[in-house]
Amino acid sequence: IMSGIFILIDKSLHVNDIIEIEGKVGKVEEIRLRTTRAVTIDDKVLVIPNHKFLTNSLFNWTQNGVQTTESVSVGVSYNSDIEMVKGILIDVAKSHPKVLSVKQPRVLFSDFGESALQFKLLFVINNSYEHLNIKSDLRFEIDRLFRENNISIPFPQRDIHIIKK
After folding, report:
1. pTM flag (> 0.70)
2. Strand order in the sheet with 35-40
3. What strand order describes the sheet that includes 117-125?
């Protein structure tokens, strides 16, 4: 009960906040003295004992406002035109209706991977509860445009050499 009182007085958690606790993400629906009720992205109800908020790490996705920066990672073949890859990724983000233009999408060349050049597309949305659907939309469009432009997304491959004695 004391945890619930602390949450209500501290105002560190509000109804409609999007939270992540113990790997679960949910939208806060109700805060009571003993428990907080949240609904997950797949419409499951989380009943969280309030003491968990005091003893565990809590990510409040919306405490700094409703805008969040999200990302989609993709690897491309080493023979890809990386400037074309960058352009396609930025265009895909800009063309999505739920990606905000307050901060322009950007692409990071994140690594020289074992089988691919790794890129990360960063973009801003204003409803983090929809991030899975938005990321899925972007991935479908990235795949379509990569195929149209002959940019391949490689898979790990190994060469095996057999030595006979």
Report:
1. yes
2. 45-49, 35-40, 24-31, 18-21, 58-60
3. 68-76, 117-125, 106-112
Instruction: Cite the DSSP H helix spans in 18-159.
Output: 51-55, 82-95, 131-148
pLDDT tens, residue by residue, 42-73: 889 999 998 888 788 888 877 767 788 899 99
CA–CA dist 56, 54 (Å, integer): 6
DSSP codes joined into one string, 65-88: -S-EEEEEEEEE-TTS-HHHHHHH
Residue written as tokens 């565990």? 56
Structure tokens at 69: 């920066």
* Bridge partners, residue 24, by sequence: 21
Inter-residue contact 3 to 10 (CB < 8 Å): no
